[in-house]
Amino acid sequence: MEESQQRAGFREYIPPRDTQRSRNLAESDTYQWTKLRCAEPFVAGWIKHWEELYNEPYKGITTDGSVISNIHRLAEEGEDLGAPTAEMVKAAQNVLDFTSPEQGRALIRPVDAPEWRSWINPELYIYRHGVRLEESTEELNTAIHGLIQASLSPAGYEKANGCMKVNRFLGEIVDGRRVLNERSYNFVIFGTPSEKEPWGWQLFGHHFCMNCFVVGKQMTISPVFMGAEPNIIDEGPDKGIELFTDQEKTALKLMQSMDPAMQKDLRIYTHLNGPEFPSWRYHRADQRHVGGAFQDNKVIPYEGINVATFSEFQQDLVRKLLILGLNYLPEKALAAKMEEISAHWAQTYFCWIGGFQGADAFYYKVHSPVVMVEFDHHSGVFLNNKDPLPFHIHTLVRTPNGNDYGKELLRQYQERQGSK
């Protein structure tokens, strides 16, 4: 109860409704708000940089600019790596059944379409491929949620749906319901839903972006962005929803279990911002996380300490952090992913930024050749806390070395088909 009360402290940071920004938000729909924000010099420059990154050929996140080859393996025909493909195909067909011809033209892209890479997590409605949930029928919305639910674990769908519900709650408390709501997201299907051939889907919007690729009974779900501002709903029909607290508690338990010498080496920066950060390591909007939108080719070195040097208890906590970060995957697919991670355990690193007492804001990253999980406490965007506080959270998952969006699996599938 005490922790929840502390988190509910977000209410002291709700901005007054008589400020110009608050009035603009209250009076705007998503199109009007985007036009206002894009006129700001910082946002305009940010978008320009996104376009530059988007136009780069895809390589994948690396530690030094070179992709490690032969690290992602396409399953053999008939091999079951846990993707609930039959259920996904059935749910996808239900989506198509409720899609008008016009929506169908917007909804479906080729499996290798470049739009995979144009997702963003801010509320700005800049990239408009797919169908907008708030502009779709109730039946289509329900069908889209059915596909998301069919693709994820029960815990994963609960968390994904929670991000969308918290977005609505944020819109209510800051009086921005037409910009921030449970349906301010776009949905896309890539390829033709099939139990054998590759296809996938994408949903993106404020504080929830997910890219799901499937081929046969194998799946890759990344990049994934899940966030919340605040991360607790303290009133209304969804009162009691709290997001990411399990990751927070596990991370603090891990860091507090270290001796002072290891804490010093793990904590790559003492403070959450400041002149000690190199330019690549901190961004005004992304803040500490480095795997966000359009960072598909970013060079991100390993930081901190190799987890293989930790005690068994501490290594188990790192595994738990990974599971909590990846638990949107269905049970068998998660087991396959953890087996892949275990094969590269000797090249897995953990780092920390910030404090590690109960009320401290912090950042951590778990990074290996086959996974990168980030967790970051942010300063306010719609709430007006200037410093990062634990009630605004961003989490990210990436698949380094070329397999975000399942791109490496798709390449191998096409190569295999071409050789037949």
TrEMBL record:
It holds the Pfam family DUF3500. InterPro entries: DUF3500. Residues 14-26 have a biased composition (Basic and acidic residues). Residues 1-26 are annotated as: Disordered. It comes from the Eukaryota. PANTHER family: DUF3500 DOMAIN-CONTAINING PROTEIN. This is DUF3500 domain-containing protein.
